[in-house]
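A further point concerns the way the authors explain their paired sequence and structure data. For illustration, here is how one protein appears when written out as sequence plus structure tokens:
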Amino acid sequence: MLSTSILAGAVFALTTQAQAQSAPASSAPAAIDELVVTGSRIARPNLDQPTPISTISQKLIRDAGPQSLGDIISQLPAVSFSGTLRANSNNFGNGAGISSINLRDLGLSRTLVLVDGERHVAGDITTNAVDVNSIPSALVDRVEVMTGGASAIYGSDAVTGVVNILLKKKFEGVEAEAELGGDDGGYGQKYSASVTAGRSFMDDRLNVVVTGAWSKEAGVDARNLPAAHNYGRIVNPNDIAPGTFDPNFYKSGSPIRNDGIPDRLYVPNVGSDTASVNGVLINPNNGRPMFSFNDAGQLIPVPKRTGFNSAGFGQLPANCGASCYFSEDYLQLASPFESKGVNFRVNYEVTPHMRAFLDAKFVQTNTTNTIQPSYSINQYQLAPDNAFIAPDLRAALAGMAPEDYPLIAKFLNPGRTTEGRRNTYRFVAGLKGDIDAGIAAINWDATINYGQTDSRFTNRGMQINENFAAALDSVIDPATGKAACRINVASAPQTGQGAGAFNKAACVPFNPFGQLNSAAVYGYSFGSYDTNNKLSQQVASLNFNTDSRRFFEFQGGALGLAAGAEYRMERTHETNDPFVLAGNTENLAANSSGGYNVYEGYVEVSAPIFKNYRPGLSELTLDAAYRGAHYSTVGDVSAYKFSGVYGPVSWIKLRTTYSRAIRAPNITEAFLPLTSTYFNIVDPCSAENIQANVNYAKNCQAAGLPQNFVANTNASIQGANSGNPGLEPEKSISYTGGIVIQPPIVPNLAITIDYYAIKIKNAITLINEQDVLNNCYGSSSGLDAHYCSLLTRGADHNINFLSTTYVNASKLETDGLDIQVSYAANVSGLTSRWERTQWMTGKLSFDMNVNYLFHLREFPFQSNPSQVHIDEGRINSVTGRINPHWKGLASLSYQQSGLTLTWQTRYMGRAALFDRDATAQDHSESLNIPFAEGVFYHNLIARYDFGDQAFGGHLKGAQVYGGVNNLFGEEPPFTLIGTGGDMGYDLGRFLFVGLKVRR
């Protein structure tokens, strides 16, 4: 209380003193182009901001080589890898080709992405996130990342922060640049090229700039990586109860808990012998493979397992080829991608106090995602009169009763692909100016913003259910002596299989043995169907910025004031092929449309209480902001922020921010229709997992599952996601507190250390598929009817469908530490002292950005608020969260004349591969390799700028450069390749070269 009173008295005294001072004789309006950095509408330098800001400079973007902007931004320690192009590879859905930004790994929908301080239309109907691949890196001047609550400044969707991509402004001349690169293993080639032309007219009042940009990335398949050998987990046969060992490895007892022996082992060549491209016949009585086939459809011995993963998967011989299924044969680590676009920018000085601007662009991106083929596993029983039973198989089946004939398990076609094309249009026009209102000089801007993303996804290789059923049921037509579909042979006994087939007369019989089917076979049973999406955004905004210098000042300066209003409308529309809508294919689909509009207004003040006042009171600035909004969906929401900067001395500043926000559900979360997807799950009721929770055994038994049931859950299962119109807004509290040090003894050195904490209550989240299963069977009070209703099991007791939806979870929490260091110096003062070092005279610069993650916790269920997922210090391959405690990025550059050498280092810290939740059994004992060890990636870049006189001036304005990323060829941990947990790791050594010319 005493300290509060003293501070209040000091503030009052300083205010009184400032009021007693005479106002300046004149106060001309501030320049139109006064810098406003991300995080505030009131101009000030980055290091004076109360909220931490990281900057990706143009140099860092250039030094990355031919990389997409999203991949470059994801290198920052505060940014998650879960929204990148690699994360959306192997994606049989609308996310293919998207690269989005996820700050603090709290969700794409909680990070606001701006371009030049203005909103940008989203690129994906399923996440409502901006696709930064639609922003060519050739246009970017710098990227500012503010990690902390910014909803009071920019809107309710800035819960975890703002990424502001600032484009190059005025330009004159012509600049062309071309780059190419690739992995030294011969894969992952990347290319980019751009041309920018600008010219000023009308005595420099009008500037017109046009940019064309193109980039292309070849895909990277898992099998390209030398370390990829289909590693997977098998149950440790030396850690199971006596009497539960199966020498054939088709079942296993549960691992013994807490005995000091690893429960599971990482081994190579984990795949399936119960389904393959060549086909497998399964014993209907015990679920084990009876017969396997080579490419020609001839019988071969079933591959022998040497380890148990699940009923369907195990450790297999490395050379079993297409008679086994290995996931890496169809796994993309990075999808092929191409982007091309044009940007048109105009700036026109209407008067000395008003400027008009226009920014228009069109960008098209194309990508192709590939996933495993369609499959039929144990859905159909081989008929004794099947047309393709060869003599060797007929002999092996002799004497078998029809009801004992094997089940067919086969991957059916060469593969499924999604070819995605996105067209992004964006037009931003407005006026900026200043006016003298007598009592104050006011800067203002008025902007209208329209954006639209049109997407078409062509899904190829989709199974037509009834057509395939009819084609699989083949007989020999006695009229021709050839194979024919049973439905077209009147003399054959009819089974009803495929009775709903389309164009029955055109049915082409499907051979389930080997790889002998023709294009005509696939053409009848499989098809290609389109999904079309449209997203649109309309924004109108008006902003004002002024100060009180003409009538009032604190001792530290004038009170800064910013205010504004914004109207925004968001719309989405999805249209699917009518054939798919009718349920005729393996995918679920529904047409949808949704949207909302919002009216917003904000006010922000900054009060510089004192500046250089007295010893111990060098600076004090207090800020506050408030934003109110009315959504057509949820009504009124509000956000506020309080922050301050205190400097005891001129070179030390303490800063803090406290903010509160309410985020309304976006279009996807509220209105997403039932959308088909695929899940990878672990069945709690399978024998090797049933001891992981004390409640699993009794609840699985109550659900009717047999004792010692062994599930086959390694092949992805079909599922669906959907929105929830009943969602409530979520509430968040963000706090940051830190110190800025700029010691005068070391000029140009700046050190910032900031603590951050974010807590989100009533958090809107998509229920994780594994949580559905764990909550269905894990309750001490019995089966949970709600969660159990979200899954179905087939006649073989295996899970064959699962659905999830958005809910209001209990809460999300994270906190950590950000450390930034920057330094620049001319070393001539040191090198000039000795003759031998004089040649080293030049400029040195160093930047470092480090994050330490204390906690990242999700409390997924309001009905069970004590349940918590622990994601800090862990790589969770199921959810795609990659969050080691330590992450870092550093750069050291040396420039001498036209030569610049740069050494970059990126660090990924040690992270657990096991489940760290309190409910998990054994923790690090669960795996023989429990951690992905920390790794440093080193990049080396060299640039040379030719001077005006080089080669007689013929190379004036030219620059050549080259580099090596991942200089020492570090590969991803083999335990993570293809799991979704490899996204944060480089795939190999990448070399690139480039040329830039400016005239």
